[in-house]
Amino acid sequence: xxxxxxxxxxxxxxxxxxxxxxxxxxxxxxxxxxxxxxxxxxxxxxxxxxxxxxxxxxxxxxxxxxxxxxxxxxxxxxxxxxxxxxxxxxxxxxxxxxxxxxxxxxxxxxxxxxxxxxxxxxxxxxxxxxxxxxxxxxxxxxxxxxxxxxxxxxxxxxxxxxxxxxxxxxxxxxxxxxxxxxxxxxxxxxxxxxxxxxxxxxxxxxxxxxxxxxxxxxxxxxxxxxxxxxxxxxxxxxxxxxxxxxxxxxxxxxxxx
Length: 257
Hints:
Blueprint: E1 4-15, E2 18-29, E3 33-37, H1 44-52, E4 59-64, E5 76-79, H2 93-99, H3 113-125, H4 141-153, E6 159-163, H5 171-184, E7 189-193, H6 197-200, E8 206-210, E9 214-218, H7 224-231
Parallel strand pairs: 3-7, 3-8, 5-6, 6-7
Antiparallel strand pairs: 1-2, 1-4, 8-9
Helix pairs in contact: 2-3, 2-4, 3-4
């Protein structure tokens, strides 16, 4: 599967007796840009953690470029949810990005001049190079997310996973982040978890809908029935006049304004 970045076969993950994911089969092609949507508790973050090897798999298999998650960590960059990070920790942007250069195992915090050069370059690439020595507690939501993306890029990944990177940012930062991801996708595979249906529909190449199981995987254009099956009820999308292509033609019970 040389052209497959991620191969997931019959994946099931349980937290105790509670199923988080059941029977998920999904292939992500090398160079693809996949968006994952679904309701809260639908298993989106769990799927990313299974790809990373951070949660035990009850059934099935996950492979990244033909390797198990444990043997492919150097190939993967990860941007966690904003809420999962403690912004009070006394550390600068540069120091955060440098942690992405740490090797696996019990490695002391010693960084080379090359590591620092790469960290500065990555901060410039995401648009916050001038903030390298600022404490993370003083960052805006958008600046914080860009910093996390820079840290994920520090491993020079072939696959980039992002868990709701625009959830806590303003509209300008959101557009900047999507622009950055489109640029990064020229050289790496991207899997993006999001609730931003309207924006993601114009960004990703493929879309996966997840609610404990895989409801849909295909073009980023959904029918009303797929959305209803995903969320368990009729869904109204209000775009405030912004053109989008999330839903195809729809019947009664699905409204777009």
